[in-house]
């Protein structure tokens, strides 16, 4: 049930909404209160209101970006916002921006507010938004009436009004009480008062409609109490015959963007699941492709700026911090992906909060310990390294806790349903910040920069990424977790975490073994050449990662409900999507390898055969589908870890032999061959033990069958 209030500024809408929310909560109703303006609890460190003002701007901008990253889910709400703004565009550019983002966010949160067992209170909903648009666009009555016909309608509407003199007095008091910076967000009192004739006209339009509207025509406390009684009685009437939900409450301190809510439906018709897989994979893929473009641009700028030898140092350090950073997560990124959706589906909120707190606490502690231990080791061996290598390794070690934060944060966001907000910061923001800082350093420096400068820029990009993931997580945090006491099941979590930690570490080691071995023997030039070829080939992993962002949580749900037919069908479709995306990227990469590498510099042309060999290995891996995700999400993580350890052992031995005989090309051949052996072994195990047919041929056959329906 949605309750909306409107009226001129200063009429008491927000005060009444808070009182009504508390009254209904006391009666046992589940109430969500959506407030337009923030209600800070403290002015600490906020002298003049500047901190609050900056937070409001950043929060609004971030939430708006979050909405625009989900155009399919928010399509209807975005169309409504667009139509209203086209009908009544504010004349002032600043107010156009403010009202555009506000109406966009209001439209999105409204569409997610239709909950049969919930009461959602908007202190300022669509009617008030239309009145505000009319005020700042100077729209005529015809446009206002048209906009009123376009709006989303609530279940109950409350109109507030008061004499103009009383409104003016209260508005002066309100503005006088605001901090200096907050006053910049507010119109002056005469502008506020021009809204009253508009709300009067809108009230007359609503009175002509055949819908009930409760009117509160005074700010007198006694009449306010009577109005509360009247609304409570109306709510009771509407809810008669409907079971009340367990008492709970949520308060949003700013009209929020459409929350990427965690879905509690655990099984769906497979046709719908397939459609959502394709849609989610498409948008994830686009983000990954954009991120890959930024990564390639970053590699281009870094390689051309610091040269092959320094690029080899940078790649060697990056390989180590990637390996240690993901090991420091202790496998809890996958634990979160597996258990958070399952706990949400079963409404086990205490365990859900417990696993999130446990994962972050343990992993961050390990990350800090690795950083301190790593810096100590590097310092003790400084005499055996070049100065550039010593400093670069120390900076890299300091980046590890930041990697832990954004990896676990992204996993939690994915588990809660926020796919785009989970992958966009790491894929887009980190490299953007790195590129900007490297270019700035190269411009300002009087001498050439090296790997140390690039790694410092990478650390700054990682810090910004972790911060953005934290903001997304705060916005998406389920309200049920606010009051839930954490409960813990560490034995169950560690049972999954240990093999996953091994798998993640071994997977990074398997892909980066060539770089690590070449760097270890001191051939940083060859390490840089091999690393560039590897980075180009790893672009082909993006389609599998994009499909996996949606695939993994749904495998967990389908496996929990023992829906084998739907799981087989979903895996088949995921395989086809993965391969199609990989081939689309591989063909131009194979055809244009040499001219592409010449852009990086003549010393990198030797990378051409290395890149082509590694690309072929990635195509084969894509043809087998997201097998590792399937094994992990169905409880076969220990078998997956065993297979991967064997593959990594073969890879390290093969790379060592290949480097000794053929140099960097030998490492490329060993890496590609290991990819084939590893994925073939997983396909055989999945067929025999998971009872799911793997491989491209069977996936195509399954794809042509009618979708399985629960």
Structure description:
This protein is mainly alpha-helical and 710 residues long. The chain is built from 26 helices and six strands. The protein folds into two domains: 251 residues, Rossmann fold; 434 residues, no CATH class. Helix content is 72%, strand content 4%. A six-stranded parallel sheet has the order 5-4-1-3-2-6, with helices on both faces.
Structure characteristics:
Rossmann fold; six-stranded parallel beta sheet; 2 domains; mainly alpha; single chain; 6 strands; disordered C terminus; 710 residues
SS-based class: mainly alpha
- Radius of gyration (CA) equals 29 Å
**First-residue to last-residue Cα separation:** 30 Å
Bin the helical content.
over 70%
Task: Calculate the mean pLDDT score and round it.
Answer: 78
Q: Using the alpha-carbon principal axes, give the shape.
A: elongated
Portion of residues in beta strands equals: under 5%
Q: Helical segment tally? A: 26
Main beta-sheet annotation: 6 strands, parallel
Which stretches are poorly predicted, pLDDT < 50 over at least 5 residues? 38-49, 241-281, 706-710
Number of strands: 6
Whole-number total of structural domains? 2
Biggest sheet: strand arrangement: 5-4-1-3-2-6
């Amino acid at each position: 049930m949605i309750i909306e209030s409107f009226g001129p500024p200063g009429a008491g809408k927000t005060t009444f909404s808070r009182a009504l929310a508390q009254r209904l909560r006391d009666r046992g109703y589940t109430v969500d209160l959506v407030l337009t303006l923030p209600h800070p609890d403290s002015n600490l460190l906020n002298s003049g209101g500047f901190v609050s003002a900056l937070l409001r701007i950043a929060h609004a901008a971030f939430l708006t970006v979050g909405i625009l990253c989900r155009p399919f889910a928010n399509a209807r709400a975005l169309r409504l916002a667009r139509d209203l703004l086209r009908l009544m565009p504010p004349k002032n550019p600043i107010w156009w921006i403010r009202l555009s983002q506000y109406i966009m966010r209001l439209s999105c949160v409204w569409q997610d507010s239709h909950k049969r067992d919930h009461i959602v209170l908007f202190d300022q909903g669509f009617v008030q938004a239309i009145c505000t648009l009319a005020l700042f666009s100077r729209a005529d009555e015809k446009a206002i009436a048209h906009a009123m016909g376009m709006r989303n309608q609530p279940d109950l509407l409350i109109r507030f009004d008061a004499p103009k003199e009383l409104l003016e007095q209260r508005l002066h008091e309100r503005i006088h009480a605001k901090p200096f910076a907050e006053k910049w967000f507010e119109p002056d009192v005469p502008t506020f008062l021009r809204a009253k004739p508009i709300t009067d006209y809108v009230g007359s339009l609503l009175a002509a409609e055949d819908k009930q509207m409760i009117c509160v025509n005074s700010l007198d406390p006694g009449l306010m109490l009577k109005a509360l009684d009247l609304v409570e009685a109306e709510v009771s009437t509407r809810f008669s015959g409907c079971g009340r939900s367990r008492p709970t409450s949520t308060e949003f301190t700013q009209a929020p963007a459409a929350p990427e809510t965690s879905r509690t439906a655990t099984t769906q018709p497979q046709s719908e699941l397939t459609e959502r897989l394709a849609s989610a994979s498409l948008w994830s893929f686009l983000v990954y492709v954009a991120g890959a473009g930024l990564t390639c641009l970053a590699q281009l700028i870094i390689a051309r700026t610091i040269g092959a030898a320094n690029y080899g140092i940078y790649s060697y350090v990056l390989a180590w911090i990637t390996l240690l950073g993901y090991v420091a997560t202790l496998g809890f990124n996958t634990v979160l992906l597996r258990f958070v959706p399952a706990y949400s589906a079963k409404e086990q909120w205490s365990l859900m909060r417990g696993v999130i707190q446990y994962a972050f606490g343990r992993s961050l502690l390990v990350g800090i310990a690795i950083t301190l231990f790593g810096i100590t080791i590097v310092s003790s061996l400084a005499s055996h390294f070049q100065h550039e290598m010593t400093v670069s390794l120390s900076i890299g070690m300091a980046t590890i806790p930041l990697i832990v934060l954004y990896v676990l944060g992204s996993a939690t966001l994915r588990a809660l349903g926020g796919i785009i907000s989970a992958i966009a910061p790491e894929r887009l923001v980190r490299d953007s910040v790195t590129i900007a800082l490297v270019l700035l350093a190269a411009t300002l420096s009087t001498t050439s920069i090296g790997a140390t400068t690039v790694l410092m820029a990478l650390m700054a990009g990682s810090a910004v990424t972790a911060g953005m993931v934290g903001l997304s997580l705060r916005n998406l945090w389920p309200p049920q977790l606010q009051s839930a006491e954490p409960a813990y099941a560490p034995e169950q979590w560690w049972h999954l975490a240990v093999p996953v930690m091994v798998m993640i570490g071994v997977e990074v080691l398997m892909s980066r073994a060539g770089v690590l071995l070449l760097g270890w023997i001191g051939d940083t030039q060859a390490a840089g050449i091999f690393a560039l070829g590897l980075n180009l080939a790893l672009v082909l992993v993006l389609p599998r990662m994009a499909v996996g962002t949606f695939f993994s949580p749904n495998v967990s749900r389908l496996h929990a409900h023992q829906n084998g037919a739907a799981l087989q069908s979903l895996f088949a479709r995921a395989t086809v999507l993965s391969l199609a995306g990989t081939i689309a990227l591989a063909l131009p990469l194979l055809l244009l390898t040499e001219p592409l590498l010449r852009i990086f510099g003549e010393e990198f042309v030797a990378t051409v055969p290395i890149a082509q060999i590694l690309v072929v290995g990635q195509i084969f891996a894509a043809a087998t589908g997201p097998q590792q995700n399937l094994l992990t999400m169905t409880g076969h993580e220990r078998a997956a870890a065993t297979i991967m350890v064997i593959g990594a052992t073969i890879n390290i031995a093969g790379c060592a032999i290949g480097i000794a005989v053929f140099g960097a090309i030998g490492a490329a051949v060993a890496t590609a061959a290991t990819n084939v052996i590893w994925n073939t072994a997983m396909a055989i195990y999945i067929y025999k033990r998971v009872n799911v047919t793997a491989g491209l041929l069977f996936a195509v056959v399954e794809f042509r069958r009618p979708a399985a329906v629960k």
